[in-house]
Write a structure and sequence with these properties.
Chain B: This is Transcriptional initiation protein Tat. Chain B: InterPro entries: PhoX, TAT_signal. The structure holds two protein chains of two kinds. Chain A has one helix and three strands. By secondary structure, chain A is of the alpha+beta class. The N and C termini of chain A lie far apart (about 35 Å). Chain B has a single domain, classed as Neuraminidase. In chain B, the strands form five sheets. Chain B has a nine-stranded antiparallel sheet. In chain B, strands 8-7-12-11-10-9 form a six-stranded mixed sheet, with no helix packed on it. In chain B, a hairpin with a 5-residue loop joins strand 22 and strand 23. The chains are: A alpha+beta, B mainly beta. Chains A and B meet through strand 3 of A and loops of B.
Chain lengths: ~110, ~625
């Protein structure tokens, strides 16, 4: 299941990566940004640490490590085949926490 | 030793001679062994030696290859049970099978209701024992938890929609007690047996031991702090020599949530993993006591070892607080040479500890045993790098805590105060019936050498936890000084370091007894059989890729404590964990638990086709009807 890399996902990761790079360049050039409020999600697997997806940090994206998830991606917008990098559980095994972070993203 | 003896018995003959078809069950045998050993044991035995057994067995029968009566099977990723040639596996009981004849059969479309589930076999089978009562065989089984997207797989996104959905999930937790019997040579459950019983999070229980009645256990519903409702997330178990069942409350924290905006757990609750959100079970929606912002003491009433008497279906289970409060894995009960009861306990969390309880009183068959699990001393293990270790008592004096009650409620904090050794997730513990030695699975710990435990204790690489970011796990064993399970000191070594020798050539490739043919990861369930073979069950990474390439599905292996040889016996279906192991009293059927097949959506075991995957216990027998363990 760790080999479940799809072309769609690869392109999504690539786009996110370039968006992040472009975003950081723009911010250096004082390009417009906006602050979004995003929710943390926690893995519910009993044997997980548990891993908490924090949108202000992004994720190493274990199924496609060349294309990490940059900061600013809402959990809902993670690829459908994204998995927990601690235990391997799918997105559907995560639950939303009542904890929010503010992340600056390109406007 | 010579293996050319022409009169050498076969493995089966050896078994039949030394283990005639018994009519007693496991714990009777354990007691008999322990008592007879008192006369046999003298001084220090060589580590792993079979002194007691060796005196009874012809030299040739002790050759390593005779320890296992099967040929190793290769690993696989099939959605099926695989056992060696000459063996067969049949399903004994599945999640949702009714225990009474007036309950509807499991409905794959709806997956049952709270009402049917409360009277049917629970979900996610785990630790179990069999008991011989009035000539009947009674099976007692933990039903640890539910996978929300399986039990609610008929709902959008696998989420509960109604209060009955949540109640159904709750009723799938707890304990199932059911009579089993052979019919045409195949074991099945006996519906409507007077011994059949479901114990759920709604069943009444009492507290006993030092913490009973303490302020930290008092709630609005129980102002005395002496009674409780239910048990949940019951992982491993253990039989007592007096015929009761010890069930172990593990990840009890994942069921609590907080309704109050901005609620934060106290440091005491945080150490036990309580947070404002539960793990998706939603119990606070139907039962307010799981709302920790309204009932902050309720989490203090879970995390114990609970004693259940299977002989009396109306008996009230007792939460034995003297055994401490943590994420209990199993409870391995040993009758020490002097008759005192010793119980080995593990806390299954990254960087938590290994414990031992020693009773003050001695066990005498037929005498009142009630005080044995209330009056005693709880210890925690400190391992040294030189292969020795010691048990440190947890008391107000050693911990600085106000009372023994507090020690028994905040046991993790107590153990931190005395400098206990942080372990790589203690799992099942099993004592060798043939030698005074104890084995404990340490399943894995990605945080080893990386970050401290939840209490801030460092997790240095070393001792029985020798690998940083340990993703494979190991089995540690210790031998109490002078063969005395109550001794302060012990000597330890590692029975196996799991690993992958095809991927790694360093310590992550595993110890010498790990090969490309028998490799596995994350040992979890451990159980000695009556012959002293150590059965190892895994709950690990089944990706079959990268670090786990070639390791296949979760599995069960047999280990020889003398030679260290390990051989694969069984491979489980997809996305399962193999957990729970016991035998029918005639020892011709081995019962093995298959938990959460398809936990990530890719299994239809055991029924196949488009069926809902169902946790189940399988009965493994030899095609020739021979003894099995």
């Amino acid at each position: 299941m760790l080999q479940g890399l799809t072309r769609r996902h690869f392109l999504a990761g690539l786009a996110a990566f370039f968006a992040a790079v472009a975003g950081s360049r723009r911010s250096r050039a004082s390009a417009p940004t906006k602050t979004v409020r995003l929710q943390k999600w926690r893995c519910t697997n009993q044997d997980c640490d548990p891993y908490i997806y924090d949108p202000s940090l992004g994720d190493i994206n274990i199924i496609d490590e060349a294309n990490p998830i940059p900061p600013g991606v809402a959990f809902e917008d993670l690829p459908d085949d994204w998995i927990c990098h601690v235990c391997g559980d799918p997105k559907s095994h995560f639950i939303a926490l009542n904890e929010w972070v503010e992340v600056e993203v390109p406007a | 030793m010579s293996s050319t003896n022409d009169n050498k018995p076969t493995f089966d003959e050896f078994d039949e001679i030394n283990n005639p078809r018994p009519d007693a069950c496991d714990f009777d045998r354990i007691v008999d062994t322990a008592i007879s050993r008192r006369g046999l044991m003298t001084g220090v035995m060589a580590f792993g030696s079979f002194a007691a057994l060796g005196s009874l067995v012809p030299a040739g029968a002790r050759a390593a290859s005779d320890r296992f009566a099967f040929s190793q099977i290769p690993t696989n990723t099939e959605d099926a049970i695989t056992v060696p040639e000459g063996y067969k596996a049949e399903v004994l009981v599945r999640w949702g099978d009714p225990l009474w004849s007036d309950v509807a059969d499991f409905d794959h479309a709806t997956r049952g209701s709270a009402e049917t589930q409360a009277r049917a076999f629970g979900d996610n089978t785990d630790g179990m024992q069999t008991y011989s009562i009035d000539g009947r065989t009674i099976l007692v089984v933990n039903n640890e938890y539910t996978n929300t997207d399986i039990i609610w797989g008929n709902r959008e996104g696998g989420k509960a929609e109604t209060d009955d959905d949540i109640a159904k999930g709750m009723m799938a937790h707890g304990i199932s007690i059911v009579e089993i019997a052979p019919k045409d040579g195949i074991w099945g459950i006996v519906k409507d047996s007077p011994y059949n019983r479901r114990i759920t999070p709604k069943s009444e229980m009492s507290f006993s031991g030092p913490a009973a009645g303490h302020d930290l256990l008092k709630t609005d519903a129980d102002p005395t702090g002496t009674t409780s409702l239910g048990t949940w997330n019951n992982c491993g178990s253990g039989p007592t020599p007096w015929g009761t069942y010890l069930t172990c409350e593990e990840n009890f924290n994942g069921y609590f949530s907080a309704s109050a905006e901005g609620w934060e757990p106290t440091p005491e609750l945080k150490r036990y993993g309580i947070s404002a959100a539960d793990w998706g079970y939603g119990w606070a929606r139907i039962d307010e006591r799981y709302d920790v912002s309204k009932h902050p003491n309720e989490p203090n009433r879970a995390g114990y070892v609970v004693e259940i008497d299977p002989r009396d279906p109306n008996s009230t289970p007792k939460k034995r607080t003297a055994l401490g409060r943590f994420k209990h894995e199993n409870a391995e009960c040993v009758v020490n040479n002097d008759g005192r009861i010793v119980i080995y306990l593990g806390d299954d969390e990254r960087g938590e500890f290994a414990y031992r309880y020693v009773s003050n009183g001695v066990f005498a068959p037929g005498a009142d045993t009630d005080a044995l699990l209330d009056d005693g001393t709880l210890y925690v293990a400190v391992f040294s790098d030189d292969g020795t270790g010691k048990w440190v008592a947890l008391t107000p004096e050693t911990t600085g805590m106000a009372s023994q009650a507090e020690v028994c409620i905040h046991t993790r904090q107590a153990a931190s105060k005395v400098g206990a050794t942080t372990m790589d997730r203690p799992e099942w513990i099993s004592a060798n019936p043939n030698a005074p030695e104890v084995y404990m699975a340490l399943t894995n710990n990605k945080n080893r050498g990386v970050k401290p435990n939840a209490g801030g204790d460092e997790t240095p690489v070393g001792g029985p936890n020798p690998r940083e970011a340990n993703n494979y796990g190991q089995i540690v064993r210790w031998r109490p000084d002078n063969g005395d399970h109550t001794a302060e000191g012990f000597k330890w070594d590692l029975f196996v370091l799991a690993g992958n020798p095809t991927v790694h050539s360093d310590a992550y490739g595993g110890s010498d007894n790990v090969t490309r043919d028998n490799m596995f990861n994350s040992p979890d369930g451990l159980q000695f059989d009556s012959n002293g073979v150590l059965w190892i069950q895994t709950d690990g990474n089944y990706s079959n890729a990268k670090d786990f390439d070639g390791q296949g599905n979760n599995q069960m292996l047999a280990g020889d404590p003398v030679t260290g040889e390990i051989r694969r016996f069984l491979v489980g279906p997809k996305e399962c964990e193999v957990t729970g192991l016991t035998w029918t009293p005639d020892r011709r059927t081995m019962l093995v638990g298959i938990q959460h097949p398809g936990e990530r959506g890719d299994s239809h075991w055991p029924e196949g086709g488009d069926a809902v995957p169902r946790s189940a216990i399988i009965a493994v027998t030899r095609e020739d009807g021979g003894l099995i363990g």
